[in-house]
TrEMBL record:
Transmembrane segments: none annotated. This is Acetyl-coenzyme A carboxylase carboxyl transferase subunits beta/alpha. Pathway: Lipid metabolism; malonyl-CoA biosynthesis; malonyl-CoA from acetyl-CoA: step 1/1. Component of the acetyl coenzyme A carboxylase (ACC) complex. Biotin carboxylase (BC) catalyzes the carboxylation of biotin on its carrier protein (BCCP) and then the CO(2) group is transferred by the transcarboxylase to acetyl-CoA to form malonyl-CoA. Pfam families: ACCA (PF03255). In the C-terminal section; belongs to the AccA family. It comes from Sphaerisporangium rubeum. The keyword Metal-binding applies. InterPro entries: Acetyl_CoA_COase_a_su, Acetyl_CoA_COase_Trfase_b_su, ClpP/crotonase-like_dom_sf, COA_CT_C, COA_CT_N. One of its GO terms (molecular function) is carboxyl- or carbamoyltransferase activity. Residues 237-465 form the CoA carboxyltransferase C-terminal domain. GO terms for biological process: fatty acid biosynthetic process; malonyl-CoA biosynthetic process.
Length: 487
C-alpha cells in the first residue's frame, strides 16, 4: 500500500468524506503487452489511477470510487477496472450508495485490449448494484473522456460536472485527429453537456459538497423557482368558492396568475435535486416531501413565459427517466399536472411525441413504486394523462381535466371555435364532475392558507395507503360503470 493510497486526501472533498477504509490497495498490474517504458512507469508512479473505499458523508455510509488524473492520466487499466467492479459488488453487499469522483483520459493505451474490456466489466458491475435498488452519483471533473465516460461513468443515476471541465467521448486532441478539426469552444465542456441534458448540474467548489449531500439525503436543498419570471403565489379565493360551470373553472385554471406545477413542487418539497432535461416544461427531481424521499415530476405551464407551455418529446423522456429512478430505488412518485396539452407541431411530431406519451404511460403502468398525481391546474388531453395514470389521482377543487381542449373539441365536432365555452360545460371537466365519474380519487383545496398542508397530507397518506396497481383498479371500475351488454 502506498502512502498516496493510504493517507492521501480525497481530492477537493476532504471535509466531505470521512474515510473508513481503502479497498484493494494490494492489487498490482503486470505489463500485459510489454509496452515500451510501461514497466518503468509502474515502478515510478506513487499510486494507481483509481482508488476505492468505504466513506461516510454526513454520517451516511457510501462506497467511493475516485479516478485521479494525476496518476496515469486517470486511465482505466486492469487494476482500475478490478477495483471499480469490486467496489460496486461490495457496495451491493453492504447496501450502500456509490459516489464517484471522476477525472480520466479513458482507457489505458499501454494495456491495450486488457484495458478496453474493463468497460464491459465495470458497466456490468454497476448494473448489479442498480438492480439491488441502490443509487450511484457521479461528479465529472476535468477531463472526463474516453472509455470511462463511455462505460460505468455515464451510468450514474445522478450526474454533476465541475464548471469548465473538459468532457466528451473523445478528448479535443483525439477529435481533431479523427475529424481534421478541433471542436469549438462551445463543445466538449461541462456546460455543453448540461445544455444537452447529459448532466444534471454544473457545480463549483462548495456546491459540489452540497449537491452530493442532497443526493444522498443528508442535506436539504430547496427547489428555487427561476427569479427571472414573476412570482406566482398560491391563490386565496376568500369566500368566493369554486365556480360550478366548466367554462369558468377553465378560465381560472388557465390564469397566468395561477401557480403551476413547479410552484406547487417548491411549496410541497423541502429538498430537490434536479434531474436535468433539455426542455423546461416538465421538471423532475429527487425530492423530500414531508420528510419522505420521493421522485417528483412537475409540469410548468409558465416555462415559456406565456402561461401555456406544452411539453414535447424530451419532456416525456425526462419523466420516464424519473419514473425509472423511482422504480429502481423503491421511492414513491408524485406527479403535478398542469398543461393545455402536449406540443403537436411538426418538430414535436418528428421527435415522436405520440410514442413518448405512450412510453410514459407504460413507465407508470410498469413501475413497482406507488404513484400519486395531483392536477393543480389544467389537465389537457393525452399530454396530461401521461402523468395521471397513477395509483392515486387527485385534483384541486378548482382544476380541470379534459379529453381535449374545448377549443379543439368545438372545431372537431362543430367546425366552430366560438362554441368552446359550450363544450367546456358539456364535457364535464371540473373536479366535481370527474369525482362523480370515478376518474379521480378525491378533490383537494386549491386555495387558502391550508391548501399546501392539505395537499401534502393527502399525498403522504396516499404514499402509505396506495398499492402499485391501484391505477388499474380505479380505471377498470370507472369503465365498467358505463358498460352494458347488448340484448
Amino acid at each position: 500500500m502506498t502512502r498516496t493510497e493510504e493517507d492521501g486526501k480525497v481530492a477537493g472533498a476532504a471535509r466531505l468524506f470521512e474515510v473508513s477504509a481503502w479497498w484493494d490497495t494490494e492489487l498490482r498490474v503486470t505489463d500485459p503487452l510489454r509496452f515500451p517504458g510501461y514497466a518503468d512507469m509502474l515502478g515510478s508512479t506513487s499510486g494507481e489511477s483509481v482508488r476505492t473505499g468505504l466513506v461516510r458523508i454526513g454520517g451516511t455510509r457510501a462506497a467511493l470510487i475516485e479516478s485521479r488524473y494525476e496518476n496515469f492520466g486517470g486511465t482505466m487499466g486492469a487494476v482500475a477496472g478490478e477495483r471499480i467492479a469490486r467496489a460496486f459488488r461490495r457496495a451491493t453487499d453492504l447496501r450502500v450508495p456509490v459516489v464517484a469522483l471522476i477525472a480520466t483520459g479513458g482507457a489505458r493505451l499501454q494495456e491495450g485490449m486488457v484495458s478496453l474490456i474493463q468497460m464491459g466489466r465495470t458497466a456490468s458491475a454497476r448494473i448489479v448494484h442498480a438492480n439491488a435498488g441502490l443509487l450511484t452519483a457521479a461528479v465529472y471533473r476535468s477531463p472526463t473522456t474516453g472509455g470511462v465516460y463511455a462505460s460505468w461513468g455515464s451510468l450514474a443515476d445522478l450526474r454533476a460536472a465541475s464548471a469548465g471541465a473538459v468532457m466528451g467521448f473523445g478528448g479535443p486532441r483525439v477529435v481533431e485527429q479523427v475529424t481534421g478539426q478541433a471542436p469549438p469552444p462551445t463543445s466538449h465542456t461541462a456546460e455543453s453537456a448540461y445544455a444537452a441534458g447529459l448532466v444534471d448540474a454544473v457545480v463549483t467548489g462548495e456546491d459540489e459538497t452540497a449537491w452530493l449531500e442532497a443526493v444522498l439525503g443528508v442535506r436539504e436543498r430547496p427547489l428555487r423557482v427561476d427569479l427571472r419570471r414573476p412570482p406566482v403565489p398560491l391563490p386565496d379565493r376568500g369566500d368566493g368558492g369554486v365556480p360550478a360551470a366548466g367554462r369558468q373553472v377553465l378560465l381560472e385554471a388557465r390564469s397566468r396568475k395561477r401557480p403551476s406545477g413547479l410552484e406547487w413542487a417548491a411549496a410541497l418539497c423541502s429538498s430537490w435535486v434536479d434531474l436535468h432535461g433539455t426542455d423546461p416544461v416538465i421538471r423532475a427531481g429527487l425530492a423530500v416531501v414531508g420528510g419522505r424521499r420521493a421522485v417528483v415530476v412537475a409540469m410548468d405551464r409558465h416555462a415559456r413565459a406565456d402561461g401555456a407551455a406544452r411539453p414535447g418529446p424530451a419532456d416525456y423522456r425526462l419523466a420516464q427517466r424519473a419514473i425509472a429512478l423511482a422504480d429502481q430505488l423503491g421511492l414513491p412518485i408524485l406527479t403535478l399536472i398542469d398543461t393545455p396539452g402536449a406540443e403537436p407541431g411538426p418538430r414535436s411530431e418528428a421527435g415522436g411525441i405520440a410514442a413518448e406519451i405512450a412510453r410514459t404511460l407504460q413507465a407508470l403502468a410498469r413501475t413497482r413504486s406507488v404513484s400519486v398525481s395531483v392536477c393543480v391546474g389544467e389537465g389537457g388531453s393525452g399530454g396530461a394523462v401521461a402523468l395521471g395514470y397513477t395509483d392515486r389521482a387527485f385534483m384541486l377543487d378548482d382544476a380541470v381535466f379534459s379529453v381535449i381542449g374545448p377549443e379543439a373539441a368545438a372545431v372537431v365536432l362543430f367546425r366552430d371555435p366560438s362554441r368552446a365555452g359550450e363544450m367546456a360545460d358539456a364535457m364535464r371537466i371540473t373536479g366535481a364532475d370527474l369525482r362523480r365519474l370515478g376518474i379521480v380519487d378525491g378533490l383537494l383545496p386549491g386555495a387558502g392558507p391550508r391548501a399546501v398542508r392539505a395537499v401534502r397530507d393527502a399525498v403522504l397518506t396516499a404514499f402509505d395507503t396506495a398499492a402499485p396497481g391501484d391505477r388499474d383498479v380505479r380505471s377498470d371500475r370507472a369503465t365498467q360503470v358505463w358498460l352494458r351488454t347488448a340484448g
